[in-house]
């Protein structure tokens, strides 16, 4: 029943998304319209309208609105955001290119010294969208820090949409009717309101629900567990395997926030735990955070949880820090005294880096859990476990015949996930029953 409700909910949002994109065309067709100006010119105008509508809706897709991401999971929403951005930019880029090819004299509108203002702001808006796309695809190659990218991304997006709406109103060929003008003003305003909600209203709500770092516990594999205690409120309820955006030592209005999975049991009351591995500039000093430091959480988010996928059994495949959300799931199932069959395939470079391995041994006593460790480097002389990669043959040696009815959860580096999905396909497991978490939301 819950799955059916999610399908209906998701279908409604997809229908609304399509309706908003085509709304400008429906309104333009209403009432009196100016005469057409040739097929290709009209195609160019249509692509411009559609592209700007799609770009404006990105404010809602990236706004972490729970009522939007609920049917799909925020990872799916962010993946759609990245892909649809490229399509929308293609529409916007095609708009002037088709106009110039259809009427070469239009090329003069690219000269800001002689072109009318509405042409100049249109070119500026398109350039801003281009910078957004380039810096998002090549952020690491351009050596942009996450904080710099995020701030510039927001400012450029706001400017680009504003310039785009101004361009449409300035041209005004199809907007003589006040109703048609009001449509674009309403659309542009709604996009900016969504941005204001994310950057102003949501931080204000978070400001009233702070946390403090109660403890910083060292774990294996250069990983640290942050124990966060709520201050003046009861804390956050989440489903095992979900995550939140964490801000440490700064106000919730700061751009420096990062997504991390909960590692504690979802049944734990009061304080919660987040395990963080030393990987980048932000996490390199995570172990030095002093107790008492103020922190803020925006969440919970994500569909990487057994609570959304009830099955007779589960298979977990983790590598490196990917064990974090799986620990939350296992700890929760232990607190629930769940006796369903569980299989964990845990890959790592060395035995010493296997985070939480001692606790996993204890969880095997509380759960119907079998853990299979797979080492790829520095294998101990007396090692009798698995080595190399997690392959279909390795999985088949441990999983029972009824594995086709199990749900599979994969968490780790993106290349590892792709490889594992290929192995699961060889094993006959449907990818419809495979959930993955990659921590990549940029």
Helices and strands, with pairings:
Elements: H1 2-29, H2 39-61, H3 66-69, H4 74-102, H5 117-137, H6 146-171, H7 178-207, E1 211-219, E2 223-230, E3 243-248, E4 258-261, E5 272-277, E6 294-301, E7 314-319, H8 323-335, E8 342-348, H9 357-366, E9 369-375, E10 386-387, H10 392-398, E11 407-411, H11 414-426, E12 434-437
Parallel strand pairs: 7-8, 7-11, 8-9, 9-10, 11-12
Antiparallel strand pairs: 1-2, 1-6, 2-5, 3-4, 3-6
Helix pairs in contact: 1-2, 2-4, 2-6, 2-7, 4-5, 5-6, 6-7
List keywords for this structure.
single chain; 442 residues; alpha/beta; Four Helix Bundle (Hemerythrin (Met), subunit A); Elongation Factor Tu (Ef-tu), domain 3; Rossmann fold; 3 domains; 6-stranded antiparallel β-sheet; 6-stranded parallel β-sheet; 11 helices; elongated
Radius of gyration based on Cα positions: 25 Å
**What are the segments in which pLDDT stays under 50 over at least 5 consecutive residues?**
none
What order do the strands of the largest sheet run in, or round the barrel if closed? 4-3-6-1-2-5
Round the mean pLDDT to the nearest integer and report it: 87
- Judged by helices, strands and strand pairing, the structural class is alpha/beta
CATH architecture of the largest domain: Up-down Bundle
**Percent of residues in β-strands:** 15-25%
Q: Report the sheet with the most strands, covering strand number, pairing sense and barrel closure.
A: 6 strands, antiparallel
Tell me, briefly, the overall form: elongated
CATH topology-level fold name of the largest domain = Four Helix Bundle (Hemerythrin (Met), subunit A)
Distance between the termini: 33 Å
Fraction of residues in helix:
40-55%
Number of self-contained structural domains = 3
Total number of helices: 11
Q: What is the string of SSEs from the N terminus onward?
A: HHHHHHHEEEEEEEHEHEEHEHE
Total strands: the figure is: 12
By CATH reckoning, the class of the largest domain would read: Mainly Alpha
